[in-house]
Amino acid sequence: MTSHTQSTTKQTPPTPEIVSQLLRTLGDPDPVRGAEDITVVGADPLVPSVHRLADAMSAAIGVFGRQTAAVGELRGHRHQKVEVQAGAAIDQLMATYHTTLSGRPIGALLDDPALLGNNDFYRARDGRWIFIIATYPHLRDAVHSVLRCGLDKVDIARAAADWDAFTLEEAICARGGVACVVRSRDEWLAHPAGRYVAQRPVVEVERVGDGPVRPLEPIGAADEALAGLRVLDLTHVIAGPVSTRLLAQFGADVLHLTRPDRPDPIPMIAMTGGGKRNAYCDLRDAHDRAAFHDALQEADVFVHAYRGLARHGASTEELVRRRPGLIALEYHAWGSEGPWGERGGFDQLACSATGFAMEEWTDRPSLPPTYLLNDYLAAYLGAAAVATVLRRRATEGGSWRIRVTLAGVCHWVQELGLLAREDVRGLPLPGRTPLAALSTTATDFGPLTEPATPFDYSSRPVPQPGRRSPLGSAPFQWLQGAV
């Protein structure tokens, strides 16, 4: 299948307009003033992509910074403006490439780096392309139970070439794996799952029940904006963990929960775990489930990135019934209630399904030059929404649900309009050298070097991520003295 013609007829909104649109989507009480307080230095194109990667990410970062500052102002902080460097926004999208642990690239420290290396586009018998993910052992096993081939990329390519792409997609997903045929944008929008995603905003914010007004208590000048807030974090991989790392960075007490038999790799915990405490919790176990519901009674926010929580009494509807006033942030690949609601997904699969990879076409479908896109955008958008809803809950009360889907993030970036291919073709590919600053901090795993926080306040230092600690190293309880 060949690339469809690039369209540049759609009006591309300037970055301030993107910021204003996001603020309105989140329900900011004063989106005009909020947009005036955000400055983005630099703009697309910075890398050879027809998509507005830097503009989209800069807007999401700026909105997060402004919403967090607004929470602080309600609690006694001085008013802050936010400045974002577009180059730093690109670095955030490439954090997995710029991050090292004890001087070693994150990818080289995985239990089996070959699993990550096998994630790629493969050409099927019918000439269609399919992206196959084998990052985790259970996903690898699903792929190989279908293809019955060896464990390297060459073997997967040979086996995939004997299948029709859509048949292979369904077979892998039926075995509990994840794969997605590369579709054009038109194909995606004609698909039931695509229509479901396209009908929804990039961030869905809805009041789902009654709940008490919970004023934001005053804090000292040295306290961070989210100090005293409690966040239960049941997330994995990148989007969810980065969103809760951001909440922890700005003062929240984040208790990250992990199922012992499905841990994220140590390098990922080092990269996404700043400021969190890590406890084990398996909702299939009655004792752990009881402990979870006990902790929920003191939580302000619950963030999750899993399907099937309703089977364990942890659907958003059940949780807000037990804890009126809760803010639930849900991450999904395709939307929990859509046609693909029970299908797993990752950043690369969202790019494949939505037409994004076709629009990035080189000599075959391609991911953006930053490799990842949706995970980091979704993280900042979700964290910004939490800060906004904290402000709304302080005056309106209520129980709230926030939903962000990876496919929806792709759709949103596409809606910003495409750049002309001839305008980006000659730009250098981003590499190991960052466009902005890196920072190095000590962790329990060794020195961690990563992209620095990508924005500045006008008259207040931006906090740095806190301590990184191993999974299961903390008791399943809140810090004493938290509000």
TrEMBL record:
<dbReference type="InterPro" id="IPR050509">
    <property type="entry name" value="CoA-transferase_III"/>
</dbReference>
<dbReference type="GO" id="GO:0003824">
    <property type="term" value="F:catalytic activity"/>
</dbReference>
<dbReference type="InterPro" id="IPR023606">
    <property type="entry name" value="CoA-Trfase_III_dom_1_sf"/>
</dbReference>
<dbReference type="Pfam" id="PF02515">
    <property type="entry name" value="CoA_transf_3"/>
</dbReference>
<protein>
    <submittedName>
        <fullName>Carnitine dehydratase</fullName>
    </submittedName>
</protein>
<dbReference type="InterPro" id="IPR044855">
    <property type="entry name" value="CoA-Trfase_III_dom3_sf"/>
</dbReference>
<dbReference type="InterPro" id="IPR003673">
    <property type="entry name" value="CoA-Trfase_fam_III"/>
</dbReference>
<feature type="region of interest" description="Disordered">
    <location>
        <begin position="443"/>
        <end position="474"/>
    </location>
</feature>
